[in-house]
Design goal:
Layout: E1 3-9, H1 14-24, E2 31-37, E3 44-50, H2 53-59, E4 69-75, E5 90-91, E6 97-105, H3 108-117, H4 128-142, H5 145-155, E7 158-166, E8 169-178, E9 183-186, E10 190-194, E11 206-209, E12 214-219, E13 222-227, E14 232-233, E15 238-239, H6 255-261, H7 263-277, H8 281-285, H9 289-294, E16 297-302, H10 304-320, E17 325-329, H11 330-333, E18 344-350, H12 356-367, E19 372-376, H13 382-386, E20 389-392, H14 405-425, H15 430-466, E21 471-476, H16 480-495, E22 498-503, E23 521-524, H17 529-544, E24 549-554, H18 558-563, E25 566-570, H19 578-596
The chain binds 5-amino-5-deoxy-1-O-phosphono-D-mannitol.
5-amino-5-deoxy-1-O-phosphono-D-mannitol binds at residues 303-306, 350-352, 355, 358, 401-403, 489, 493, 610-611.
Length: 614
């Protein structure tokens, strides 16, 4: 949430900061800002703009500021509307220090009151500005930077990443981390700071992921790290593999479309990786073979699309591993009673590995000393660092806010992992395990082939036609119900059209009253023969009320196909992989509806790729 970039070093800071921000714009894009110290007189200068980064860049024509120490920010508003005043960086009373911030200062009300009583004047509605005034006040009291910072971090509550520059300390940049991600890239006589290493991954691969509850003082060749009590810490600098980071659209109009097309390759790459680690899998996920054999239940945590993947995986684990699987929304989990179970494990699913809700849920499980695994796409993420063990999907960098290939690879990973556990427990044999791996590849083929089959008719006919409607009902049953939820989420977030999802069996208990000529009904079929029969009855209920039915069916499902007003027929796969096979076509269809409506598909309004606030 919010893109944060800082630079201090031998070169001027504006170019690397703007380049970094452009790579992080997916994290927030309602306003942007840049501040630096003017070379020569060290005066703090800044430029801010409402809206996307290009609005900020335009302003440099009038005000071409630059300096060897600078900070930049793209914002996703939490406190205060998107405006120039509320854009970061924020300042103290006399604009002598400047702060860019990610996260939320939870006690900002109390601190603001206190600071106003001391005479501080505020010019924004942000919680960030409070930090600037508080530091101003603490510097007056403590006279020196280090004690002022120790006092600052001990007064701020919430989760935050902060980057600070001060006129009084022109050779030092301050970075602080509590909860929100922050990393430092170490270059040749230069340091980069960012909320995501993507910002500087092409310049250096030497990275310090700031430990939680720590702060650092940076200079062009200086790196001093402290914990919140002021005790020095030894920085643990890592060399990261940035080869997989690709931030180009490769000729596609949107990242989302490119990522839809990358899915088959991403599934293949993920499966190849799982095969390569199959023998050491338990070390990797932080379990022993004995623990796996004794596992009696599995729990999933996640948000948004990752939660939908978990809901689908629940069917995998119950059917394949023959044990109960429970799924919790990470944002709810912390506030529910916790019943610790014996011989259980938690899997926290997160594309980014940085989602605050999921991380907090993971931390809670960790604090109870219950086995936990992070399933994520980002090897350098907080989830990987904090969980007992991890399983990595190999989707490659996902840039579009709407998750596509991450979802597909999560499904592939969870299907594979359920079989790997079943193999360890002796529920399936090696042949069945091999077959399951082949089934994943067959489903990946079906995912891609169905896009090719319906590409023309979607672009030319279906997308323009359905883009005329304002609201939709999505139906699924059994394993296709969570998939229908994912489809409805995808349509909502990129096209802003209203889509309500129901389990098809619930239709007759109320939602059937909504059926009318203005509300197309998207129904996602199942390859389970009993569930299919029930879905067929639900489709008949819709048609009996003159509802307009769009069906995602599988080959051979003649009765359902005949009922449809519009129909997509997908090759049959293993029934548990039906959602994976439907994934590409569903995403391609909703992508084109949003395109007809001329929506900003990669950066939908109000959203951000990585939600690092609770
Ligand atoms: O990075 P995560 O998987 O933890 O993100 C969770 C959700 O924020 C994310 O899936 C969100 O729902 C996407 N925009 C869906 O397309």
């Amino acid at each position: 949430m919010c893109g944060l970039v800082g630079y201090i070093g031998k070169n001027l800071s504006r170019a690397p900061i703007i380049k970094g921000l452009s790579r992080l714009e997916y994290r927030g894009y309602d306003s942007a800002g840049f501040a630096c110290l003017n070379p020569g007189d060290n005066r703090l200068v800044y430029v801010k703009a409402q809206g996307q980064l290009h609005n900020l860049i335009k302003q440099f024509d009038q005000k071409p500021i630059d300096g060897h120490i600078g900070i930049g920010h793209t914002r996703w508003s939490t406190h205060g509307v998107a405006s120039q005043e509320n854009a970061h960086p924020q300042f103290d009373c006399y604009k002598t220090l400047s702060i860019a911030h990610n996260g939320i200062i939870e006690n900002h009300h109390m601190l603001k009151e206190q600071l106003m009583q001391e005479g501080h004047l505020f010019s924004s509605q942000t919680d960030t500005e409070i930090v600037a005034h508080l530091l101003e006040s603490l510097l007056q009291i403590h006279k020196k930077l280090l004690p002022a910072l120790i006092s600052l971090v001990n007064q701020l509550q919430g989760a935050y990443a902060l980057v600070i520059i001060l006129q009084a300390y022109p050779d030092q940049m301050v970075v602080i981390r509590k909860g929100s991600p922050l990393c430092i890239g170490i270059g040749q006589q230069e340091m980069f700071v960012s909320s995501d290493l993507l910002a500087f991954a092409d310049i250096t691969n030497k990275v310090l992921f700031l430990p939680d509850q720590s702060f650092a003082l940076l200079g062009k060749e200086l790196l001093e790290l402290y914990d919140f009590s002021g005790a020095p810490l030894l920085p643990s600098i890592q060399e990261v593999d940035s080869a997989w980071i690709n931030v180009d659209k490769n000729g596609y109009e949107h990242f989302m479309l490119k990522e839809i097309y990358e899915q088959k390759g991403a599934i293949y790459a993920s499966l190849a990786f799982f095969r390569s680690i199959s023998h050491q899998i338990w070390d990797q996920v932080g379990l022993t073979s004995e623990q796996v054999k004794n596992l009696e239940s599995i729990h999933f945590l996640g948000c948004g699309t990752s939660w939908h993947a978990a809901r689908i995986a629940q069917f995998f684990f119950e059917k394949i591993c023959l044990m109960p699987a429970r799924v919790m929304l990470a944002s709810e989990f912390r506030y529910m009673p916790f019943f610790a179970e014996k011989n259980s494990a938690y899997i926290a699913i997160s594309q980014s590995g940085e989602t605050a809700d999921t991380l907090e849920a993971l931390r809670l499980v960790n604090s109870m000393h219950i086995a936990n695994i992070a399933l994520t796409n980002v090897a350098s993420s907080t989830a990987v660092r904090e969980a007992d063990g991890f399983l990595l999907t190999h989707a490659g960098q996902e840039i579009a806010v709407a998750s596509t290939k991450a979802f597909a690879t999560q499904l592939a990973a969870l299907y594979w992992f359920a079989h790997r556990i079943a193999l360890e427990k002796g529920i399936i044999n090696l042949y069945q395990f091999e077959t399951a791996q082949e089934d994943i590849l067959i489903a990946a083929e079906a995912l891609e082939n169905s896009i090719e089959k319906y590409k023309k008719i979607i672009v030319e006919t279906y997308a323009p036609y359905y883009a005329q409607y304002k609201k939709f009902i999505f139906l699924g049953r059994h394993i296709s119900y969570p998939f229908a939820m994912e489809a409805a989420l995808k349509l909502k977030e990129i096209s802003y059209l209203f889509a309500q999802c129901y389990p098809a069996g619930e239709l007759k208990h109320g939602p059937i009253a909504l059926i009318d000529a203005e509300t197309p009904i998207f129904l996602f079929s199942s390859l389970d023969s009993l569930v299919y029969q029930k879905l067929l009855s639900n489709a008949q209920e819709v048609k009996a009320r003159k509802g307009h039915l769009v069906v995602f069916a599988f080959e051979g499902q003649k009765e359902l196909i005949q009922l449809a007003d519009a129909c997509f027929i997908i090759p049959t796969v293993n029934p548990l992989l039906a959602p994976l096979a439907m994934t590409g076509l569903m995403q391609f269809f909703v992508y084109h509806i949003a395109k007809v409506l001329d929506c900003p598909i990669d950066k939908p309004r109000n959203l951000a790729k990585s939600v690092t606030v609770e």
